[in-house]
């Protein structure tokens, strides 16, 4: 089997010394983590390794020797390095050697117990960027999260083992450039923490502030949960109004942000960060909207146009009804039924207009207060807008319901009478159509009713069609608003930013590049982080939204429309859980 | 490697594929053919045509021919699958229109079928069943491409109603320049010759067969009470309405009589209603859809097999039942009287009264013990119909067909116009010309030389029997789909 | 060791297969399609602009002309960046894995690396593609739950679609490495 040696690029120019790392026997790969330089006292190296091993629970050991020939080759150094194998027993013993000025390295692996002929073991050198590997996060996570809790960190297989090793051995890298330890190590080093006073202060203050805000939030939610709101009309309204829904959603977000519990795994941390980014963006957009609305008396202007628009809509509806009551599109309808339906709807519109006029003096105030809600976030304002649209088009909703009920009644009647026509009946117990013999009276009455219903159907169907189209228009507008709200709610902004600026942080895997190669020397590969594509970033880190999933597919929607069942744009609360 | 000449496609085989040493196995007594079976009906759909195609293909593979099957996709089963002995099945993604038959425009299937015919180096197209639109399409395209064509008709048709008139006209067009037609019984041959206005010389009769080893009697599985078994699809053509009349009548007359009914279909509801109305839940068992391998287990539980078909070209079910040692009672329609000798079958008119009489006669014989033992019936029937025999006879047809010349385009047009009547003839001649132009266009788009020759799975140099040294290839699905 | 051979794809177009044998355990196959030809580019651009000019002469709105220029530019960019794949590379390294890289005409590269532990086998399979039946090379991935099952089929050279002779070439090389891998992993 080919022996693979993972070597950090930052150690390529280090002085000669010992290779410190981990040996993974099942894949026969050696992960070099650092180089310990001369001079050292072997016992101190052993102590250091024992300490790291305890901290990281990873079997770190001395893997072999590293020889960087800057100056003229010294025979004595070679012998000395060979002698070290006896001090740090390891199987196999690696000997990496970099020639002076040459780009090609020599690498040998020797087995002490069973000396096998050279060339049997091929060695492959794989360079990796220690910093990127340390900071990156593999997707999908190789170790399921629940196994993290257990004390035994069973190492994952494959390349994940390399990532795992590097990540666990963070303790080894803790010493920075300025540290003076007993053993001089060479590895990736952080530039040292610039201990800014502000950052420190923020860190100290964040704890109590979070506690305070969390307390406030729990108070708010306690008020929200009190019994007055559980009473019938309020709870019903609360479940139907998208504003309440959105507020509840945001409250949950805030509670998540300010919770004092530490995030357990990277996914949770990322979720928290994404939530913060989403809330901040939302509020910023909301404030922009607020400043636009309250500048230069736009509210008054808006209120002045709103009432005439509502009036205009009602008038147009009246015209439409009058058109339907005549001979719409040249269709000949049942005159009596047509008149009855038309008058009924006209009366409704009349009621509606008087209601609007009653409301008109207060509209400006209402709008002003609604505008204030934008400071809670753009999403809240948008949800309010959606609710207002729903309220202003209440008459259309009523018409639609009446039309749908009538139409459905007729369709059901027709379908059961059609079965009677063919001598069949619906067996409700067995859920199938049985044959059945009817007597003469039943057949006679049934046929009569069937004829009547069939001839009245076009009139009802036309009313149903027109009002369904209107209703669909309103639903589509509301759906668009909800989509926008959902987008703001669920877009993982932080992850996207991370992907944009630090692509190696979110790794989908690795990729290899074959470096220049010379016959007889070990193959050299460069391992790079393969960043997660944007679509998968969005998919993985999408925040759970409050569920604007379409309830029906297009096919089932059409079927429901045809059979006259009611369609609702309202979100299903049960969907929220997933 | 798969190219053996004889076809109309004169282009060299790709040289890169000749890994198997050529000529080493070219010692068969007759010439081998590359046959492509085309039908809409194949497994996982169940029925007579399907098993016919499968068994015939297996026997032809055994005799050293290369056989592939082309059918349409069944649900999730699309693409290319391998069955036992490397029988390759192409499930083409074509839209199913009605009753598992694909929609046809006469053109849309040409690119795929042409590609398959070329890459498999097919020389003979063998279409099955006149209900299958794909089979007719394939015939039409094959003639345009200049390949030999054979057609097997599995069903009978009337002449009276509108649909029959239309279908018969289409059959006339489709078969008028087909090289050879195979029918499953003499009645069927008569019917087909009349319907398609054919020359009887080019129509052969090769009956269906059953695998006698699959249908062995097992008298110990029978109960003491008399059991009548019906195994058929529950559709109008199979006479399910007659069955619903027979069940209550006989059940009232004989208290120890039981029915076992296997099969599924739109008429099942009638039988369920009869069962409920006469409270026969314990005596009439409806098994629902049966797998082909379970049929034998159902058959051996009964004493009498009842077949109520209203039209039938060759009834495989009664041969299977007789092979299991059951007394067969059947309607006297179509090719059924030819199938079994008179001492093994009781023939009746297709009416409730006549069928009841026939069944009573059978029950009387059973009670009086004058029926022959199941083993004896099995031994007699065993010799009648075997797939090897069918394959041999079909092979003769192929040999004859491969000698014949395919009509060139001008003669084909002449024949269409002269043979199919003035209006239809001209329309289809025009369509044939269009098809030819389309083919030329396709040949220009992807020349035959660009198409890879498929690796032979069956046939004399098949990859299935020869293990390549280091080029084992297997379809991902071949393990899954080795079901019959 | 490096050599280059010329093959054709399933439509008859030319493909160049470069094989680089870095070491016995590491091989690279690189299939490159011909680059975007100036002729087809000119043809498409001219058609779009002529159509735009026709529309312009009909409705006399100069917006159409500028829109046409924008559309051709955006279309070309999108085509080069997302559609046109110039080169597909299969790098197979013994005991490490298989890496597939496709480089777009714009220089974008998308890479997938599959670890050897997940690879069950490499096979040539047949599929119905558009109005053709083609052979393709694919990598079978092991099902982590069921050892003999296949969890996924990853097609290789998806955009180049070489013909069978080219596939067999690659297939044999890959099988040699896989055989090595199997031999060493069973008796280490």
Automatic annotation (TrEMBL), chain A:
Keyword annotations from UniProtKB, A to Z: Glycosyltransferase, Membrane, Transferase, Transmembrane, Transmembrane helix
GO CC terms: glycosylphosphatidylinositol-N-acetylglucosaminyltransferase (GPI-GnT) complex
UniProt entry tagged with the keyword Membrane: yes
Domain of life: Eukaryota
Transmembrane segments: 275-293, 340-358, 370-402, 440-457
GO molecular function: phosphatidylinositol N-acetylglucosaminyltransferase activity
InterPro entries: PigQ/GPI1
One BP annotation, GO: GPI anchor biosynthetic process
The keyword Glycosyltransferase is annotated on this UniProt entry: yes
UniProt protein name: Phosphatidylinositol N-acetylglucosaminyltransferase subunit Q isoform 2
Organism (species): Callithrix jacchus
Phylogenetic placement of the source organism: Eukaryota, Metazoa, Chordata, Craniata, Vertebrata
Gene, per the UniProt record: PIGQ
From TrEMBL, chain B:
Pfam family, one: PIGA
One Gene Ontology biological process: GPI anchor biosynthetic process
TM region(s), chain numbering: 423-442
GO molecular function, one term: phosphatidylinositol N-acetylglucosaminyltransferase activity
Chief location category: endoplasmic reticulum
Catalytic activity: a 1,2-diacyl-sn-glycero-3-phospho-(1D-myo-inositol) + UDP-N-acetyl-alpha-D-glucosamine = a 6-(N-acetyl-alpha-D-glucosaminyl)-1-(1,2-diacyl-sn-glycero-3-phospho)-1D-myo-inositol + UDP + H(+)
Entry-linked InterPro entries: Glyco_trans_1 (IPR001296), PIG-A/GPI3 (IPR039507), PIGA_GPI_anchor_biosynthesis (IPR013234)
Native organism taxonomy: Eukaryota, Metazoa, Chordata, Craniata, Vertebrata
Membrane topology: Single-pass membrane protein
GO terms for cellular component: glycosylphosphatidylinositol-N-acetylglucosaminyltransferase (GPI-GnT) complex
Keyword tags: Endoplasmic reticulum, Glycosyltransferase, GPI-anchor biosynthesis, Lipid metabolism, Membrane, Phosphoprotein, Transferase, Transmembrane, Transmembrane helix
Uppermost EC category: transferase
Protein name (record): Phosphatidylinositol N-acetylglucosaminyltransferase subunit A
Signal sequence interval, chain numbering: none
PANTHER family documented for this protein: N-ACETYLGLUCOSAMINYL-PHOSPHATIDYLINOSITOL BIOSYNTHETIC PROTEIN, PHOSPHATIDYLINOSITOL N-ACETYLGLUCOSAMINYLTRANSFERASE SUBUNIT A
CDD domains: GT4_PIG-A-like
Pathway of action: Glycolipid biosynthesis; glycosylphosphatidylinositol-anchor biosynthesis
Function text: Catalytic subunit of the glycosylphosphatidylinositol-N-acetylglucosaminyltransferase (GPI-GnT) complex that catalyzes the transfer of N-acetylglucosamine from UDP-N-acetylglucosamine to phosphatidylinositol and participates in the first step of GPI biosynthesis.
Residue ranges of every copy of the Glycosyl transferase family domain listed in the record: 221-363
Compartments it resides in: Endoplasmic reticulum membrane
UniProtKB/TrEMBL annotation, chain C:
Keyword Membrane tagged: yes
Phosphatidylinositol N-acetylglucosaminyltransferase subunit H conserved domain boundaries: 89-158
One GO biological process term: GPI anchor biosynthetic process
GO-annotated cellular components: glycosylphosphatidylinositol-N-acetylglucosaminyltransferase (GPI-GnT) complex
UniProt entry tagged with the keyword Transcription: no
Keywords: Glycosyltransferase, Membrane, Transferase, Transmembrane, Transmembrane helix
InterPro entries per the UniProt record, alphabetical: PIG-H, PIGH-H_dom
Residues annotated as transmembrane: 36-56, 62-82
GO MF assignments: glycosyltransferase activity
A Pfam family it matches: PIG-H
Record pathway: Glycolipid biosynthesis; glycosylphosphatidylinositol-anchor biosynthesis
Family listed: Belongs to the PIGH family.
Name assigned to this protein: Phosphatidylinositol N-acetylglucosaminyltransferase subunit H
Protein's organism: Callithrix jacchus (White-tufted-ear marmoset)
Gene: PIGH
């Amino acid at each position: 089997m080919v022996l693979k040696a993972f070597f950090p690029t930052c150690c390529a120019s280090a002085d000669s010394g010992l290779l410190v790392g981990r040996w993974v026997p099942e894949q026969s790969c050696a992960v070099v983590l650092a180089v310990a330089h001369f001079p050292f006292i072997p016992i101190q190296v052993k102590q250091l390794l024992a300490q790291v091993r305890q901290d990281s629970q990873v079997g770190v050991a001395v893997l072999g020797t590293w020889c960087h020939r800057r100056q003229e080759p010294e025979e004595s150094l070679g012998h000395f390095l060979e002698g070290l194998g006896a001090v740090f027993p390891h199987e196999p013993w690696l000997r990496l050697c970099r020639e002076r000025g040459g780009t090609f390295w020599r690498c040998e692996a020797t087995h002490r117990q069973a000396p096998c002929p050279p060339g049997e073991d091929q060695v492959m050198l794989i360079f990796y960027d220690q910093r990127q590997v340390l900071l990156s996060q593999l997707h999908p996570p190789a170790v399921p999260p629940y196994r993290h809790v257990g004390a035994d960190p069973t190492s994952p297989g494959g390349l994940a083992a390399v990532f795992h090793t590097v990540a666990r051995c963070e303790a080894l890298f803790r010493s920075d450039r300025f540290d003076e330890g007993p053993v001089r190590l060479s590895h990736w080093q952080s530039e040292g923490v610039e201990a800014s006073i502000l950052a420190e202060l923020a860190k100290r203050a964040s704890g109590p502030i979070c506690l305070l805000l969390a307390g406030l939030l729990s108070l708010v939610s306690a008020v929200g949960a009190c019994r007055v709101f559980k009473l019938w009309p309020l709870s019903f309204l609360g479940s139907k109004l998208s504003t309440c829904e959105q507020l509840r959603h945001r409250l949950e977000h805030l509670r998540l942000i300010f919770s004092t519990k530490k995030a357990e795994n990277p996914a949770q941390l990322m979720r928290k960060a994404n939530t913060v980014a989403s809330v901040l963006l939302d509020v910023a957009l909301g404030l922009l909207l607020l400043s636009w609305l309250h500048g230069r008396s736009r509210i008054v202007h808006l209120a002045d146009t709103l009432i005439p628009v509502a009036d205009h809509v009602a008038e147009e509806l009246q015209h439409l009804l009058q058109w339907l009551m005549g001979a719409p599109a040249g269709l000949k309808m049942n005159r009596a039924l047509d008149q009855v339906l038309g008058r009924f709807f006209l009366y409704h519109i009349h009621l509606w207009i008087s209601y609007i006029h009653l409301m008109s003096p207060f509209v400006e105030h209402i709008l002003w207060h609604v505008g204030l809600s934008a400071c809670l976030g753009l999403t809240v304002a948008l949800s309010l807008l959606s609710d207002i649209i729903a309220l202003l088009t209440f008459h259309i909703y009523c018409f639609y319901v009446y039309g749908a009920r009538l139409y459905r009644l007729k369709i059901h009647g027709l379908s059961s009478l059609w079965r009677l026509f063919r001598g069949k009946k619906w067996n409700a117990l067995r859920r199938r159509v049985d044959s059945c013999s009817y007597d003469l009276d039943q057949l006679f009455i049934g046929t009569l009713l069937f004829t009547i219903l069939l001839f009245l159907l076009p009139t009802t169907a036309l009313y149903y069609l027109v009002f369904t189209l209107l209703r669909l228009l309103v639903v589509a507008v509301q759906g668009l608003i909800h989509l926008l709200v959902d987008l703001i709610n669920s877009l993982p902004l932080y992850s996207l930013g991370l992907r944009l600026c630090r692509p190696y942080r979110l790794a989908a895997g690795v990729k290899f590049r074959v470096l220049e190669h010379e016959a007889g020397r070990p193959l050299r590969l460069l391992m790079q982080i393969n960043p997660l594509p944007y679509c998968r970033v969005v998919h993985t880190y999408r925040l759970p939204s409050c569920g604007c999933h379409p309830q029906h597919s297009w096919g089932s929607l059409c079927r429901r429309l045809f059979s006259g069942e009611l369609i609702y744009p309202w979100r299903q609360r049960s969907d929220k859980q997933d | 490697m798969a190219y053996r000449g004889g076809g109309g496609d004169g282009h060299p085989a790709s040289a890169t594929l000749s890994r198997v040493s050529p000529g080493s196995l070219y010692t068969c007594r007759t010439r081998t053919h590359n046959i492509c079976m085309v039908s809409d009906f194949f497994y996982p759909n169940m029925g007579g045509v399907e098993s016919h195609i499968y068994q015939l293909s297996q026997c032809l593979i055994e005799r050293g021919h290369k056989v592939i099957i082309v059918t349409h996709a069944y649900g999730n089963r699309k693409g290319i699958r391998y069955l036992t002995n490397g029988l390759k099945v192409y499930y083409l993604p074509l839209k199913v229109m009605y009753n598992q038959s694909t929609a046809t425009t006469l053109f849309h299937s040409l690119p795929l079928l042409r590609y398959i015919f070329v890459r498999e180096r097919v020389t003979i197209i063998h279409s099955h069943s006149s209900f299958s639109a794909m089979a007719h399409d394939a015939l039409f395209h094959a003639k345009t491409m200049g390949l030999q064509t054979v057609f097997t008709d599995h069903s009978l048709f009337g002449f009276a109603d509108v649909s029959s008139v239309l279908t018969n006209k289409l059959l006339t067009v489709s078969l008028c320049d087909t090289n050879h037609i195979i029918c499953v019984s003499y009645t069927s041959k008569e019917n087909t010759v009349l319907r398609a206005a054919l020359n009887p010389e080019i129509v052969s009769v090769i009956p269906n067969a059953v695998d006698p080893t699959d249908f062995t009697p097992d008298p110990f599985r029978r109960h003491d009470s008399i059991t009548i078994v019906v195994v058929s699809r529950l559709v109008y053509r199979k006479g399910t309405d007659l069955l619903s009349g027979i069940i209550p009548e006989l059940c009232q007359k004989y208290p120890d009589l039981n029915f076992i009914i296997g099969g599924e279909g739109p008429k099942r509801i009638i039988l369920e209603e009869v069962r409920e109305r006469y409270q026969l839940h314990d005596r009439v068992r409806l098994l629902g859809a049966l797998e082909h391998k379970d049929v034998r287990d159902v058959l051996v539980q009964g004493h009498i097999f009842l077949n109520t078909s209203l039209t039938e070209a060759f009834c495989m079910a009664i041969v299977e039942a007789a092979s299991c040692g059951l007394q067969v009672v059947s309607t006297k329609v179509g090719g059924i009287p030819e199938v079994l000798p008179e001492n093994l079958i009781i023939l009746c008119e297709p009416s409730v009264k006549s069928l009841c009489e026939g069944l009573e006669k059978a029950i009387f014989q059973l009670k009086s013990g004058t029926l022959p033992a199941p083993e004896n019936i099995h031994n007699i029937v065993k010799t009648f119909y075997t797939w090897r025999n069918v394959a041999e006879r079909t092979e003769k047809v192929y040999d004859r067909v491969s000698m014949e010349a395919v009509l060139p385009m001008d003669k084909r047009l002449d024949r269409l116009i002269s043979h199919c009547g003035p209006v239809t003839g001209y329309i289809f001649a025009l369509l044939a010309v269009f098809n030819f132009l389309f083919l030329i266009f396709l040949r220009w788009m992807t020349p035959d030389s660009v198409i890879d020759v498929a690796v032979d799975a069956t046939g004399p140099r098949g990859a299935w029997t020869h293990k390549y040294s280091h080029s084992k290839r297997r379809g991902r699905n071949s393990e899954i789909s080795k079901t019959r | 060791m490096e050599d280059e051979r010329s093959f054709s794809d399933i439509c008859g177009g030319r493909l160049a297969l470069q094989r680089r044998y870095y070491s016995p355990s590491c091989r690279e196959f690189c299939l490159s399609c011909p680059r975007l030809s100036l002729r087809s580019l000119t043809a498409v651009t001219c058609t779009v602009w002529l159509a735009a000019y026709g529309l312009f002469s009909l409705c006399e709105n100069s917006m159409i002309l500028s829109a046409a220029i924008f559309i051709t530019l955006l279309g070309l960019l999108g085509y080069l960046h997302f559609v046109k794949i110039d080169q597909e590379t299969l790098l197979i390294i013994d005991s490490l894995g298989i890496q597939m890289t496709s480089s777009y005409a714009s220089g974008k590269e998308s890479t997938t690396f599959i670890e050897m532990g997940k690879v069950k086998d490499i096979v040539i399979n047949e599929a119905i593609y558009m109005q053709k039946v083609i052979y393709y090379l694919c990598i079978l991935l092991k099902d982590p739950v069921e050892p003999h099952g296949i969890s996924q089929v990853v097609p290789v050279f998806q955009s180049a679609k070489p013909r069978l002779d080219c596939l067999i070439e690659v297939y044999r090389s890959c099988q040699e490495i896989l055989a090595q891998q199997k031999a060493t992993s069973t008796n280490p």
